[in-house]
């Protein structure tokens, strides 16, 4: 019996060595958090993903030369896989143990966390007994996304030529699916300008996004044309329309103001485009909007195999005054008989939501790195 107890105790001891923890107290937080350790080649390591989650670090791997770029507290560390050395501000440091890869995951030596970080950030990181006390990490990552299902309520949007489907219903269905993916897989807070069949003015949609301090704004629509042969997917960001097709879509989406918001007088509450574009902050958002539009458009075409109508610029009222990266996605032509059938199909709506999600995810990764460095 004693022998069995001894073996059991030995196993627990080994398990403790394999599953040790580094206790970290974030200043301002009530409870400490544990950074799990694991033993690799008889040395204690921590998973990069676990480290990044606690320290809000942004990392980028360059597989071409096995480098890892780690951004933390407004500084960038550069590691080389299978090497104990890293650089900070062009100075080389030795961790004594190498950065290791196990499958698709990278691992940092625990000593980097417990000993070396405090030498680089003495005012931000201190060792207090067995606890590592750290300043609250700076996190400018995307946390809140507003999805805008176009039209709704008394405004049906475009109506299908064959099935007489209402655009407003398709937009909402895809938005709800996209919301679920973003919350479940990216862990962000997702808000909708409407969650049911109700009318919301274009002005109130962007005002909602601004009031909620959204980091991204994505408006979802289904396209329409007088020609039943027009088909494909296109993504827009705010600017003056560059082509006749873009101007036609712009006019169609903006017609909501005159039809449902009080006629020509209602236009006065929408800011002049030239004023918005003259604002430096908005110009910065336009550049990021362009990047997000390209990421979403690329993934949509790859995932749906639809006709690529490209990324375009237009003066959409719904994008005016949204002081964050903003795009408008035209998910297909409800006026095209075949595309209308696709747009009302739940499996195709799932595919649209998934591919838009992948585009947002890709953009968010790069955007977060920019905002945190």
From TrEMBL:
Report the record's Gene Ontology biological process terms.
peptidoglycan catabolic process
Its protein name is N-acetylmuramoyl-L-alanine amidase
Is Hydrolase among the key words of this record? yes
Sorted alphabetically, which PANTHER family does this protein's record hold?
N-ACETYLMURAMOYL-L-ALANINE AMIDASE (PTHR30404), N-ACETYLMURAMOYL-L-ALANINE AMIDASE AMIC (PTHR30404:SF0)
Q: Which residues form a coiled coil?
A: none
**What range(s) does the MurNAc-LAA domain occupy?**
206-361
Source species, domain of life:
Bacteria
Q: Per UniProt, which keywords does this protein have? A: Hydrolase
Enzyme Commission identifier(s): 3.5.1.28
| GO terms, molecular function | N-acetylmuramoyl-L-alanine amidase activity
Q: Which reaction does it catalyse?
A: Hydrolyzes the link between N-acetylmuramoyl residues and L-amino acid residues in certain cell-wall glycopeptides
Q: Name one Pfam family in it.
A: Amidase_3
Q: Which GO terms describe its cellular component?
A: outer membrane-bounded periplasmic space
């Amino acid at each position: 019996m004693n022998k069995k107890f001894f073996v059991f105790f030995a196993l627990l001891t080994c398990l403790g060595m394999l599953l040790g923890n580094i206790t970290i107290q974030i200043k301002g937080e009530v409870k400490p958090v544990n950074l799990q350790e694991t033993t690799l080649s008889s040395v204690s390591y921590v998973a990069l993903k676990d480290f990044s989650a606690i320290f809000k670090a942004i990392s980028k791997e360059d597989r071409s030369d096995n480098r890892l770029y780690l951004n933390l507290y407004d500084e960038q560390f550069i590691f080389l896989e299978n090497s104990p050395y890293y650089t900070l501000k062009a100075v080389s440091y030795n961790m004594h143990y190498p950065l290791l890869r196990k499958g698709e995951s990278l691992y940092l030596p625990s000593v980097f966390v417990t000993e070396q970080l405090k030498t680089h950030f003495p005012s931000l990181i201190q060792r207090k007994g067995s606890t590592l006390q750290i300043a609250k990490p700076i996190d400018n990552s995307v946390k809140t996304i507003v999805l805008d299902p176009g039209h709704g309520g008394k405004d049906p949007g475009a109506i299908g030529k064959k099935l007489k489907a209402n655009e407003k219903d398709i937009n909402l269905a895809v938005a709800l699916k996209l919301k679920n993916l973003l919350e479940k897989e990216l862990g962000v807070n997702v808000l909708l300008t409407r969650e049911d069949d109700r009318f919301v003015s274009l002005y109130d949609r962007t005002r909602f996004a601004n009031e909620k301090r959204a980091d991204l704004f994505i408006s979802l629509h289904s396209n329409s044309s007088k020609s039943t042969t027009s088909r494909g997917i296109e993504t827009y960001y705010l600017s003056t329309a560059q082509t006749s097709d873009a101007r036609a879509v712009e006019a169609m989406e903006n017609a909501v103001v005159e039809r449902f918001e009080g006629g020509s007088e209602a236009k006065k509450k929408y800011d002049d485009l030239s004023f918005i574009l003259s604002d430096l902050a908005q110009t910065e958002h336009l550049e990021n909007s362009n990047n997000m539009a390209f990421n979403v458009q690329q993934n949509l075409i790859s995932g749906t195999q639809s006709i690529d109508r490209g990324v375009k610029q237009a003066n959409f009222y719904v994008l005016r005054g949204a002081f964050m990266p903003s795009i408008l996605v035209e998910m297909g032509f409800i006026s095209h008989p075949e595309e209308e059938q696709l747009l009302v199909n739940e499996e195709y709506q799932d595919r649209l939501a998934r591919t838009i999600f992948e585009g947002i995810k890709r953009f968010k990764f790069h955007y977060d790195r920019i905002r945190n460095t």
